[in-house]
Design a protein that fits this description.
- 37% of the residues lie in helices and 32% in strands.
- The strands form two sheets. Strands 4-3-7-6-5 form a five-stranded antiparallel sheet, sandwiched between helices.
- The chain contains five helices and seven strands, in the order E-E-H-E-E-H-H-H-E-E-E-H.
- The chain has helices at 25-47, 66-71, 83-86, 95-106, 154-173; strands spanning 2-8, 14-21, 50-56, 62-64, 113-120, 126-137, 143-152.
- The chain is of the alpha+beta class.
- A hairpin with a 5-residue loop joins strand 1 (2-8) and strand 2 (14-21).
Length: 174
Amino acid sequence: HVHLSMVRDAAGKPLHSVAIVQNITERKRVQEALRQSQERYRLATQAGRVAVFDWDLRTGEMYVDPLLKSSLGYEDLEIPDDLGGWEPLIHREDFPLIQQRLLDYLDGKRPYYELESRAFHRHGSVHWFDTRGEAFRDASGRPLRIIGTVVDITERKRAERQRERGRRVARIER
């Protein structure tokens, strides 16, 4: 990186120039390593259809992966990254379970935050999601944030229902 400045006299006539040359090879190497790491992460979560969320419990700020929004038929900016934006999409039968699991986990009554729940697609169909998260706590154990993953398991749930229907039909035919 080169920074060049001209030093002038009181009349504005150039006297001399000053150049500062800085070797930024290491900074460029670190930037490239970070770019590659971010690309690897993006490709892996995209390939696995794993959406990520990050919820700051102190401020209420959230990051919700656009992949989760798109799995429900929405563009990134159509659903705000806050609980209010998600509440209408969550199946009303599952909302109390989600809240209780979260409270139990944060209170230490459950070792993990994980559950399967439903949400509504833009076109009205129900999608199933496997959600897992981990809280990061301060020195006194107070939860500061939760980071986790959400995977659309709708196809698996449909296959499970079809197998169960097949088993019931087979039992009836016996």
